[in-house]
Design a protein that fits this description.
Elements: H1 3-16, H2 28-31, H3 33-41, H4 46-65, H5 70-93, H6 98-112, E1 121-125, H7 132-139, E2 147-149, H8 171-188, E3 194-197, H9 200-213, H10 219-235, H11 237-240, E4 244-249, H12 252-260, H13 269-283, E5 289-293, H14 298-313
Parallel strand pairs: 1-3, 1-4, 2-3, 4-5
Helix pairs in contact: 1-10, 3-5, 4-5, 6-10, 7-14, 8-9, 8-10, 9-10, 9-13, 12-13
């Protein structure tokens, strides 16, 4: 991700959430070395990222308040550049990819920042075997007059080679199919409320990260998918920003038994434990998450989800 792309995404995200643009010279961000450091560092995690964010805000605040004091601004910029350079060294020593860290943070921020109201979109997320598709089919009638997206694995042409030798399965294209198919559904939807079988965040931040960690997709492909997810969150903000996520979960052994009853590759309990742990981490600190114990009988889970839907569409 180059600086122009980061700047464009940040500005588009701010606009999609109703945040006022700060006045800047047309070419300032793209050509200013200090701004390059700012946008590289703003995505860092933990205290380093928070420090960078504070400095960025302070710099802009001073610049906006005292635009006529050119000498002072140059001095202030030099001081901040020194701090930013040091933070960039810390990022390198910690083996943090600032561009990817920024994309990951912004994809999570898409849940955290909305225009102040919850939208009529509900997603049902969870690992394989948690019952997402079963629950969606069971509650479709409660969504009468609205639109439901059902994840159809059998329509993904890239999954045909999943049981083939590792180098025959194109995980990147398979992931992109899931992301593009859901994106098209959201774009085309015209009803007042939507119900999605899986959350788009899970496609990239859970499964995409897992595939990247296991060497099944390249660094460039993972970054591309992150940017695509962020662009979806920006372009479809009126439908997505402020959505509610029902997160289904069950012990890995339960998930494995359910998956064994379905067609497709065998999924071991250890793998499923990894997936459910990733779901827990990704959605742990996000707003509007409703956690549901999916280890219970399907009828009990359907009842709980219907309760959420009744309140949701009322």
């Amino acid at each position: 991700m180059n600086i122009q792309m980061l700047v464009g995404l940040q500005r588009a995200f701010d606009q999609s959430r109703g945040m006022a643009n700060l006045p800047e010279h047309e070419d300032a961000v793209a050509s200013d070395q200090l701004s390059r450091l700012e946008y590289s560092l703003i995505g860092l995690t933990g205290e380093v990222g928070e420090i960078a964010n504070i400095i960025k805000k302070a710099r802009r605040g001073r610049a906006l308040a005292e635009t006529n004091e050119r000498a002072m601004l140059m001095g202030l910029g030099a001081e901040i550049a020194d701090v930013m350079s040091y933070l960039l060294k810390l990022a390198d020593q910690a083996h943090v990819d600032p561009g990817r860290a920024w994309l990951l943070k912004m994809c999570r921020n898409a849940h955290r920042f909305s225009r102040g109201e919850r939208v009529p979109l509900l997603t049902i997320a969870g690992p394989p075997g948690s019952g997402k598709s079963t629950i969606v089919r069971a509650v479709e009638t409660a969504f009468a007059g609205n639109e439901c997206y059902l994840e159809r694995f059998e329509e993904n042409p890239w999954l045909d080679s999943l049981d083939s030798p590792a180098d025959a399965f194109d995980a990147g294209r398979s992931q992109r199919w899931f992301l593009d198919t859901m994106t098209q559904f959201i774009k085309d939807a015209r009803s007042a409320s939507l119900l999605l079988d899986q959350d788009p965040t899970a496609i990239v931040l859970v499964y995409g990260q897992l595939l990247f960690d296991r060497g099944m997709i390249s660094s460039d492909t993972f970054d591309e998918h992150l940017a695509t997810l962020l662009r979806l969150e920006i372009d479809q903000a009126p439908k997505l920003a402020g959505r509610t996520v029902i997160l289904l979960d069950a012990p890995a052994e339960t998930l494995a038994k359910r998956c064994a009853r379905k067609a497709g590759p065998r999924l071991e309990a250890d793998f499923l434990e990894d997936v459910r742990a990733r779901f827990a981490r990704v959605f742990a600190e996000l707003p509007n998450i409703v956690r549901v114990d999916a280890s219970r009988p399907v009828s009990d889970v359907v009842r709980d989800v219907r309760t959420q839907i009744d309140a949701f569409v009322a």
